[in-house]
Amino acid sequence: MRIRILRNIIVLIFFILAADVFWMQLIHGPDYVKRSENNRIRLVPEDASRGIIYDRNKIPLVENKLAFDVVAIPQEMDKENKDVLFSRLGKFLDIGAEVLADTFSSNYDSSFSPVMLASNVPRQTAFLIEQEMNQLQGIFIKTSSMRNYIYKEAAAHISGYIGKMRESEYPELEKYGYLIKDVIGRAGLEKSFDKILRGKPGGMQLEVNSKGSIINVLSYRPPMPGEDLYTTIDINLQQLIHKEFNGEKGAACVMDCENGEILALYSGPSFDPNLLIDKKKYNAIGRILKDPDTPLFNRALNVYPPGSIFKIVTAYAALKNGVIDSKSSFECTGEFKLGNSTRNCWMKSGHGRISLREALATSCNVFFWNVGLKMGAKKISSTAREFGLGKMSGIELPGERAGVVPGPKWKRAELREKWYGGDTANFSIGQGYLLISPLQALKLAGVFASGGLEVTPHIIKQSLKQNQKRIADSQYINIIQEGMFDVVHSGTGTGRNAFIPGAKIFAKTGTAQVGRGDPHAWFMGYALIGKRNICFVVFLEQGGHGGERPAQITRSIISYFKQKS
Question: Torsion over CA of 529, 530, 534 and 536, rounded to 10 degrees?
């Protein structure tokens, strides 16, 4: 009897075990398999903060500020009720559920990668979403650093801005460790030094269960912040120039002639880089991109006909080649006959018998037409190239153009045309095919400011002093300096608007005809202020005469240094 009862108990136990195995394996097996598969590793990337960009006095030009992003983890979302989820989330973000669904689809990479739904949301919105996490399964708030361009339009062409990588750019950047969704520098220093500013991203490997709860932190690699950049820019001077331009089209560059440090580099009109990195500002972005005045265009690095500022090159070439000396003179009647044509000096009544020094001060065209035709275009071209025209300066900014130094060979090669005397006449006064940038004009000013040394402009602080080489003979430079001094300080000089009592200013005005509309206006040179030797160039696109607004802006620049001396 007892054996029978024990046998029945054993059979019952086996029956219960078999039923439990059947229940678990056949009825709920697929569900347990699914849950088991959901116990997996989640990779949570952590972006590196970009390096800070400073001015010469360690004042931040570009910094990072805390931003709140809304992301979704696909693996943890309730896929069957995704529409309801997006509808709830949309009420916090003031975004339609359909828009969130489209954003999710376009940004989706894999079930383990966070999907960006909204970036840089207000702090209060982020806190409200955090409080409702139990109703927003799979939605998280992720903190990140966002670029803040502190001085906006004043320093935009120096700092540049960042933007999302294009798909076409990824194959080239992948070898440098970039990821497909990274942001990269789009202009300015952000672009030139992107690889060191960006740092290296980090992240965590997390083991999570089927409910999305963290079981274990498997590993963590902290992100490495990007390197900081220290520039030579004086942001207070930069702001002064921005204010002086007041929306005018053109550029201004200022350099320390002793070491080539760029103290200011401005292009106007400008733009606010903060607008270009905030996708919610699409109306403002559209206005910037469609603006006919092209504010994204860096005019300091673009090329234009220089007009009469080039006369100092023609003068040096003539002195060097023995075509004239300091006592040479020509008669200016206001007219100059070349073949069957007659050209007019800007002073229709003429300057009379005029020397080199007087011709530079008054910018007499007739004097330089005589000199140019007597000397020939080849010698002018050779001297211009020796001074660095026709090639890029190597400034640490993207988009610099080399310009054009023409001549008979150049015209045959590029235009398949013969060079004529009229071309030489135009060339000798900075017109015709000649094109230079404001930055090249600044470098040219450095040659005369330094007594004939090559001064290489740079915008990033360097610990080593430049190894300046002599590219011009000081005896001829000294002769031209006398005329440049008279441009500002004599009663007949074309740059009297730049005059400041107590400041020694050496300059050359330029008015470059461009066909339709007003001519371009230039004012370039250098000033001795205390112990400082400051080079400058101010260029206004279709700004009229160089001795007017450009000279007035230059006076404000020199006054800034005089007040500090």
Answer: -10
